[in-house]
Amino acid sequence: YTTLFRSLIKSECVRVLDQVSSVLDASKVMNNKLTIQKTPNDLKKLLEEKVLIFSAQAKSAGIELVSQIDPTIGEVLYDPKYMNQAVNNLISNSMKYTPTGGKITVEA
Fold first, then answer.
1. DSSP string for residues in 38-103
2. Fewer CB atoms near the end CB (10 Å): N or C, the chain?
3. % of residues, the chain, pLDDT over 70
């Protein structure tokens, strides 16, 4: 049980930190102080990693999670922090609202 509890505590801590970060970001947006730092990043790699990370959770929920990512996608300018957050939110929300037996396709 110890490993299970540690895992649960860790995931809840990450969830709460994400919520606090979102509130802080909303405050920055409202005060025109949010700064986005666009840098060249590998979008294909980011999307493939996210699909891999969420695949076990999707499988346990009876959801098929697949990716269709164009292999020719090169570097793209984006802020890694916010793109990471956006992709996490999109996949997480998709999993919440996809019924068992459904399919989610991450496509770029």
1. -EEEEHHHHHHHHHHHHHHHHHHTT-EEEEE--TT--EEEE-HHHHHHHHHHHHHHHHHHSPTT-E
2. N
3. 99
Nearest-angstrom CA–CA distance, 44 and 79: 15
| Encoded tokens for 97 | 């609202």
Residues of 21-36 as b/e, b for ≥16 C-beta within 10 angstroms?
A: eeeeeeeeeeeeeeee
How many other C-beta atoms lie within 10 A of the C-beta of residue 108?
13
What is the C-alpha to C-alpha distance for residues 62 and 69, in angstroms, rounded to an integer?
A: 22
Residue 49 is which amino acid? Answer: E
- For residues 102 and 95, what is the distance between their CA atoms, to the nearest angstrom? 9
In this model, does residue 71 exceed pLDDT 80? yes
CB 60 within 8 A of CB 97: no
Distance CA 17, CA 103 (A): 29
